[in-house]
Amino acid sequence: MKSYNPQWLGPGVAATIISGLIVALVVVGVAGFNFLNGHMMDLKSDMRDMGTMLGQQIEVLKLGNMTGKTRLRQDIKEFRADKRAPNGKLDRLLESLLAART
Question: What is the pTM of this model?
Fold first, then answer.
């Protein structure tokens, strides 16, 4: 029968356990890093999509603002035309009155 020698058994078992723990920590660390890296990629993609969507909304607002500006310019032109129209009528009336007097 072999005798039990704790000196040979101790370092071998301890090294095996420590190696196993180190490997487990490395595997967990790599898995955690990959998990976080995946989430970061998803967040970057979401941010790009949000930026694209905001850019489109800004363009829509700009076009809407341009439509408002165009409408305002047209209203100003119409107002000026309406303002000139009575002056032209008054001028023609005065010309016809003056022509009638002579």
Answer: 0.44
